[in-house]
């Protein structure tokens, strides 16, 4: 049960966006840019970074939802997502993605935990400055989002697999799809 009355029965961040669409709109726009906008990193990998950071933060809602969104966009599906969340050092990802996940994990601990060696390794593995930038920002944004969702004790679906049903809406229409033209969220079902 949420800590405050949100006036709706939605789950996770959607319930918060319905409660306060003035903040929901810019947060959705940022998610769209980071997770769906133009990038050398595939969308599935960006969602995987979000799921990984959310798992480190023990945010059930964001881990389940972004794991489903990543799995739907990665050829290896949920198997890879589970492997990354369990141990990115042994997960079968490219050396570049492994280095970016290492940076994301450091950001989750503290921005100051990112070391120059982490950045150099990512560059050595082929990551561009923009990819490094976006990885840091995705990790930072998800630390904030995880704390927002859990700090207000939002509702979480009993069955994490239910997020897979929402994945096509996000993949095809983006994060802004859950917001109406007047700023009111619409059901993404």
Explained architecture:
Helix 1 packs across helix 2 (21-36), helix 3 (43-56) packs parallel to helix 6 and helix 3 (43-56) packs across helix 8. The chain has helices at residues 12-19, 21-36, 43-56, 60-71, 77-86, 95-109, 116-124, 129-151, 163-173. The chain has one domain (12-178): AhpD-like (Up-down Bundle), CATH 1.20.1290. Helices cover 62% and strands 0% of the residues. The chain is an all-alpha fold and 189 residues long.
Compile the SSE list and pairings:
Blueprint: H1 12-19, H2 21-36, H3 43-56, H4 60-71, H5 77-86, H6 95-109, H7 116-124, H8 129-151, H9 163-173
Indicate how many domains the architecture comprises.
Answer: 1
In whole angstroms, the N-to-C terminal distance is 22 Å
Tally of helical runs? 9
> What overall geometry do the principal axes of the alpha carbons give?
globular
Class of secondary structure makeup: mainly alpha
- The CATH topology comes to AhpD-like
Assign the CATH class.
Mainly Alpha
State which percent range the strand residues make up: under 5%
- What's the pLDDT, averaged over the residues? 93
Q: Encode the helix/strand succession as letters.
A: HHHHHHHHH
Question: Could you give a short account of the major beta sheet?
Answer: none
Q: Tally the beta strands.
A: 0
**What is the helix fraction of residues, given as a range?**
55-70%
CATH architecture: Up-down Bundle
What is the CA-based Rg, rounded?
16 Å
CATH superfamily: AhpD-like
């Amino acid at each position: 049960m949420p800590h405050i009355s949100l006036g709706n029965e939605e789950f996770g961040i959607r319930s918060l966006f319905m409660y306060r669409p003035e903040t929901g709109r810019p947060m959705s726009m940022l998610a769209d840019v980071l997770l769906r906008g133009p990038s050398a990193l595939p969308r599935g990998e960006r969602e995987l970074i979000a799921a990984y950071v959310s798992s480190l933060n023990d945010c059930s809602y964001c881990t389940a939802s972004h794991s489903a969104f990543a799995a739907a966009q990665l050829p290896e599906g949920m198997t890879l997502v589970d492997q990354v969340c369990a141990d990115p050092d042994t997960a079968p990802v490219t050396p570049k993605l492994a280095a970016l996940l290492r940076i994301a994990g450091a950001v989750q601990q503290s921005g100051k935990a990112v070391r120059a060696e982490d950045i150099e390794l990512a560059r050595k593995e082929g990551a561009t400055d923009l990819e490094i930038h976006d990885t840091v920002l995705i990790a930072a944004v998800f630390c904030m989002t995880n704390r927002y969702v859990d700090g207000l004790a939002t509702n979480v679906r009993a069955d994490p697999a239910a997020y897979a049903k929402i994945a096509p809406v996000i993949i095809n229409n983006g994060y802004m799809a859950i917001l109406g033209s007047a700023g009111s969220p619409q059901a993404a079902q």
